[in-house]
């Protein structure tokens, strides 16, 4: 018994030794970084001169939560989150179900649908800049060809539609990634269960809604939580297409943070935005783990 306990202790020490380099790197680049961001959120600082830091307590947070632009960015992120996650889930699940029977050429279609997710966001933004271009863009040209001129507009310059233009670009880029999640989820469903349903006379829709959809709850949860965290930190596609404009119509939390921290040299105030984003992301991660544990049981 003593030998077994000694061997267990040796295993634990070995495991901690292997984890030590990773923990050291995380301490330097993650934990210290988070600590520093939280610290400077209580200061007025330009982000350049350390000696110019001036303690101001909760003033940054007071300014943040009374700033209409901040709440506009929260609203935009919420709309973006709801629409992108729901549409990507639906389309991703449909593609996964259609490709599951291993149709002729299914590896080609899987690769084809996943290509946008593998491309750089810069490439996706460039593609949609050409699509949305107001004078010679593909979308407006199509509407003119169909004699639907009333739909022609500056898609990323109109505050009423710019946010939805970004949402469409994001859906195009990431639906293939959701498809991969659902394909993985579908492969975990036993074929015996599906065959038993067919023997009992269950049709496609009954099988889908009564068996497949409920058994994909862990996948749904993962897709939703990852989508929510992704929406909170979305920056690149917004900055490349609109830079938060026109008139803050597409301002997101990440672009709001960049605007104050980098463009306007208000690092203390920008750190306050970063703290809010960290709290939201950590909270969603904890929620994901809690829900996943429940669905796994």
What does this entry look like structurally?
This protein has helices spanning 2-40, 59-65, 68-99, 106-118, 121-132, 138-145, 162-187, 191-199, 204-215, 217-232, 236-241, 253-263, 267-296, and strands at residues 43-44, 54-55. The chain has 297 residues and is mainly alpha-helical. The protein folds into two domains: 1-28; 41-296, MetI-like (MetI-like fold). It is flat and about 75 Å long. The two termini are 33 Å apart.
Q: Low-confidence parts lasting 5 or more residues at pLDDT below 50?
A: none
Helix content: over 70%
Global Rg:
24 Å
What does the largest sheet look like?
A: 2 strands, antiparallel
Spatial gap, N to C terminus = 33 Å
As a percent range, the share of strand residues is under 5%
What is the CATH superfamily of the largest domain?
MetI-like
Number of strands: 2
Q: Globular, elongated, flat, extended or rod-shaped: what is the shape? A: flat
Strands of the biggest beta sheet: in what spatial order?
Answer: 1-2
Number of helices: 13
Structural class: mainly alpha
Which descriptors apply to this entry?
297 residues, mainly alpha, MetI-like fold, two-stranded antiparallel sheet, 13 helices, 2 strands, flat
TL;DR of this structure?
The protein is built from 13 helices and two strands.
What is the topological layout?
Elements: H1 2-40, E1 43-44, E2 54-55, H2 59-65, H3 68-99, H4 106-118, H5 121-132, H6 138-145, H7 162-187, H8 191-199, H9 204-215, H10 217-232, H11 236-241, H12 253-263, H13 267-296
Antiparallel strand pairs: 1-2
């Amino acid at each position: 018994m003593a030998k077994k306990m000694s061997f267990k202790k040796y295993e634990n020490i070995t495991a901690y030794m292997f984890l030590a380099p990773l923990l050291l790197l995380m301490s330097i680049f993650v934990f210290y970084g988070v600590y520093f961001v939280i610290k400077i959120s209580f200061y007025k600082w330009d982000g350049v001169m350390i000696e110019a830091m001036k303690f101001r307590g909760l003033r940054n947070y007071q300014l943040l939560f009374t700033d209409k632009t901040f709440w506009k960015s929260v609203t935009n992120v919420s709309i973006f989150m709801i629409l992108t996650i729901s549409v990507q889930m639906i389309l991703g699940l449909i593609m996964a179900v259609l490709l599951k029977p291993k149709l002729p050429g299914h590896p080609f279609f899987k690769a084809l649908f996943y290509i946008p997710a593998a491309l750089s966001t810069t490439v996706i933004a460039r593609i949609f800049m050409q699509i949305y271009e107001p004078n010679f863009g593909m979308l407006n040209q199509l509407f003119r060809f169909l004699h639907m001129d009333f739909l022609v507009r500056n898609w990323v310059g109109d505050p009423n539609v710019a946010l939805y233009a970004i949402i469409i670009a994001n859906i195009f880029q990431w639906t293939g990634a959701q498809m991969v999640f659902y394909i993985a989820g579908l492969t975990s469903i036993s074929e015996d269960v599906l065959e038993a349903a067919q023997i009992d006379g269950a049709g496609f829709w009954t099988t889908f809604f009564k068996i497949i959809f409920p058994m994909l709850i862990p996948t749904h949860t993962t897709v939703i939580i990852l989508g929510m965290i992704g929406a909170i930190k979305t920056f690149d596609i917004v900055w490349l297409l609109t830079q938060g404009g026109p008139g803050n119509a597409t301002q997101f939390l990440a672009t709001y943070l960049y605007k104050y921290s980098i463009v306007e040299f208000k690092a203390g105030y920008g750190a306050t935005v970063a703290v809010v984003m960290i709290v939201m992301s950590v909270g969603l991660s904890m929620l994901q783990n809690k829900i996943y544990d429940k669905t796994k049981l």
